[in-house]
Amino acid sequence: MTEFSAKERTLARENILKVFYQHDLNQYSFSDITKTFIEKRPFDKDYFNNIIHLYELNTDKINNFIEKNSDISLDTLSPIDRSILRLAVCELQYREDVPGKVILNESINIAKKYSSSESYKFVNTILDKLLTKMKTNDKE
Q1: Which of 7, 44, 90, 126 lies at a 20 to 30 A Cα distance from 15?
Q2: Four-residue CA torsion sign, 132, 17, 34, 68
Q3: Mind listing the domains of the chain with CATH numbers?
Q4: What is the pLDDT of residue 3?
């Protein structure tokens, strides 16, 4: 893997969010979306491709985990909040090299930037609950 800066990883997450959001709205395949995706600023492309691939392989597991371990139904959320949660849970479950606190912080910042003014509080609450559940499952 190549070296990346924190800024490039953050931008990769924002770009993943855009791909997830587009997929959620129009159901185009991830490969079709990424083929036409344009970002002029440098970002961690390896991370971008890895997370999209992991999510594509584990979509049902990720969605089920969110719904079973929180008091929400994904269908009731805005597409952007749904995408933020999916991205975070994908990272939390399948990228053990990234600390949970980093994923939580990045998700909150993304929610502040891309969602409604109060959404970051919601994202924080749900992800904190999911992270606690993951830690409990690891101990069992």
Answers
A1: 126
A2: positive
A3: 6-139 (1.10.940.10)
A4: 62
Mean pLDDT, rounded, for 60-68: 96
> Per the structure block, which two tokens stand in for 113?
């930037």
Name the pTM for this structure. 0.92
**pLDDT tens readout for residues 30-62:** 999 999 999 999 999 999 999 999 999 999 999
